[in-house]
Amino acid sequence: MTIDEYAQQTRELIALIGISEFQASFDCPNPTCLHGIADLPTSEDQWDMCMARFRDSARQGEEFMVAFKVSECQFKVIRCTCFGSEKKAYVVA
Questions:
Q1: Which backbone phi and psi does 56 adopt, to 5 degrees?
Q2: Per residue in 37-59, pLDDT tens?
Q3: Is residue 65 a contact partner of residue 26, using CB atoms and an 8 Å limit?
Q4: Contacts of residue 4, Cβ cutoff 8 Å, sequence gap at least 6
Q5: 26 pairs with which residues across the strands?
Q6: Cα–Cα distance between 65 and 57 in angstroms, integer?
Q7: Which of 37, 46, 59, 67 lies in the 20 to 30 Å Cα band around 75?
């Protein structure tokens, strides 16, 4: 799955529940479902510390993605692979 495809799934979820109810989500191929994650940082600069938690949940070398709310009109997706990571911000439609 590409980062844009994951962002579209996240955008569809936000459309259903609203951005105010959106919790960060974590997805990796095994299992292949979205997981909501509570009690995560509220500021973007704290996310580097949390990425280790997600890496521990994924199998070694396994791709995973995390989506989280940046503001009332924007969310960010981070995609991590064995080759590195990429981050993109998206507007809530």
A1: -65, -30
A2: 556 655 566 666 666 666 666 66
A3: yes
A4: 88
A5: 35, 66
A6: 11
A7: 59
